[in-house]
Design brief:
Alpha-Beta Plaits, mainly alpha, 525 residues
Length: 525
């Protein structure tokens, strides 16, 4: 019963988080967004004390059920391990796994490296080791393109039937280094899980190591009754965490992920999931199997309901010019400062809190966000405008970010964030060569670009106080492959934000005064 309950809840979490990472419409976030916020590392980065306390409390009560129920990477490894064990049994190997001592030195070295990288700010190492970030990277880079191709096929079919239920999306590799890292991560995980079950979770994963500090003292644990055990070692050979030592009738609770496979494997009723504080590692004879079974089921179901309630509450085609000349693709310029999304307080604050889970990249409808290829911010998102620009009405990334790296903002608040500043390259600008253009000035949603006469013609000039860094000018500039106007990031968005808010309030007051003057009688005017 416990195993079936664990499998059911695990499937629900795994499916929900994967769909959330695959969703490019933003429709699922209002229903499933809380699943990303209760992941351990995003909760730590967001300083969500309620979620962190709830996860630690659940671990102290039930053990590392987080790794079997909530973590998508852990559940994925369970699936691979199950297939690997089944394959070994088909080849007459009835011992898929066996007891192995804890590789404490490796676990703690990786954990110390992870914590040091987190404190110092080497976010590439953090994103590489974090389980939720790794799964987000795999889904966004390897699975979402397949989903988009299927969506585009449905869009073509719908177009021929006169339906607008689907719309086509561009499929492309946003960052080759991140794509390669995602592919290598997936291959390594499959090999480790196929051969050794939970090897990654119990030797590399920093979240698993963190929770292991608490799971050693869990209130409820699987307990071996030495008097009933016949030393058949069936539970030991089926334990994908390799944490059951039947020779000594002991279980390493720091590695046990509470999958409950051992409870169903035991034919002699020697394994029970029970209250274990103040008790020995083996069960007492005084409890009858019926009473122990009732206590086990009652404790787990009641506790699971309590924990779930606590968490829930806190919880291509080439374009052509007129059909004649083939247009070159836009290329990304060398930006002096990276651009982070509106809603981020500053570049430093954004990269300190971002876990590179790729959720904002996957949900960006304008193809603006993509993983960085620079070593300093590897795999963390940045803005670039070769395929689109950040539209003023879009706040999707701020709605889905689980860590607080991008604060949730409204459409009105978005215009007060000045994340970048445009600059004109006079050598590339066609207006400098006597061509009548002005496309950047016409398309700028902030009115930050004006066409100024220089005696020989008109050329664009950027008002630094008005430019918000949306990238519309760079994206819509007709010059290719490099645009004649480039947007660079601003290090601090807070000062620019306060200026933008003052400007917004001033515009609102002006609008209200105009309305009042219009409503006055003619005599008062």
């Amino acid at each position: 019963m416990l195993r079936k309950l664990r499998i059911t809840l695990g499937i629900l979490f795994f499916t929900g988080i994967t769909l959330l990472l695959l969703d490019f419409t933003g429709a699922l976030h209002c229903w499933l967004g809380w699943m990303a916020k209760i992941q351990f590392l995003p909760a730590v980065m967001a300083l969500n004390v309620a979620v962190i306390a709830a996860l630690v409390l659940v671990t102290l009560i039930f053990g590392r059920i987080y790794c079997s129920l909530i973590c998508p990477l852990g559940i994925f490894q369970d699936c691979i391990a199950h297939m690997g064990a089944a394959s070994k049994r088909r080849h007459n190997n009835n011992k898929p796994y066996s007891w192995s001592p804890e590789k404490r030195w490796l676990r703690y070295i990786v954990w110390v490296l992870f914590v040091a990288a987190l404190v110092i700010g080497i976010n590439a190492i953090v994103a590489l080791l974090a389980p939720y970030s790794a799964w987000g990277r795999i889904v966004q880079n390897l699975l979402q393109p397949i989903v988009l191709l299927g969506n585009n096929l449905l869009a073509v079919i719908a177009e021929h039937t006169g339906s607008y239920a689907f719309y086509s999306r561009e499929v492309w590799i946003r960052s080759l280094p991140t794509f390669i890292i995602a592919a290598v991560t997936l291959i390594v995980l499959i090999i480790l899980a196929w051969r050794g079950g939970r090897t990654y979770c119990n030797t590399i994963c920093p979240v698993g190591t963190t929770l292991s500090f608490f799971s050693r003292f869990a209130m409820f644990r699987p307990v071996i009754d030495a008097d009933k055990c016949r030393n058949c070692k069936k539970c030991e050979h089926d334990c994908k965490a390799s944490c059951i030592n039947i020779a000594k009738h002991k279980i390493d609770y720091s590695r046990c992920v509470d999958c409950f496979n051992c409870l169903e494997d035991c034919q002699f009723d020697a394994l029970k999931y029970r209250f274990a504080w103040g008790r020995a590692n083996t069960a007492k004879k005084t409890d009858t199997p019926q009473v122990k079974g009732q206590n086990t089921r009652r404790a787990f179901i009641t506790g699971a309901a309590l924990a779930a309630g606590s968490i829930a509450l806190n919880a291509q085609k080439k374009k052509t010019d007129g059909g004649l000349a083939q247009l070159l693709d836009k290329k990304a310029p060398e930006r002096e400062v990276p651009i982070t999304p509106p809603g981020s307080k500053s570049i430093k604050d954004f990269y300190q809190h971002c876990t590179a889970c790729q959720l904002c990249v996957a949900s960006c409808p304008n193809n603006v966000l993509r993983p960085s290829a620079s070593l300093e911010h590897l795999m963390q998102p940045e803005m670039s405008f070769e395929r689109g620009y950040c539209r003023p009405e879009c706040t999707r990334c701020s709605e889905v970010c689980p860590t607080g790296a991008i604060s949730k903002i409204s459409r009105e608040e978005k215009t007060s964030y000045h994340v970048g500043l445009a600059s004109v390259n006079r050598e590339l600008c066609v207006a400098e060569n006597g061509v009548s253009c002005g496309n950047c000035a016409r398309q700028c949603p902030a009115g930050a670009i004006e066409m100024v006469s220089n005696g020989e013609g008109r050329h664009p000039v950027v008002n630094e106080n008005l430019c918000i860094g949306c990238g519309a000018c760079e994206n819509l500039c007709p010059v290719r492959p490099l645009s004649a106007i480039t947007v660079n990031g601003r290090h601090n968005h807070i000062n620019d934000q306060s200026y933008g808010q003052k400007r917004l309030h001033k515009d609102i007051r002006r609008s209200r005064n105009r309305s009042r003057r219009r409503m006055r009688p003619d005599k008062e005017r």
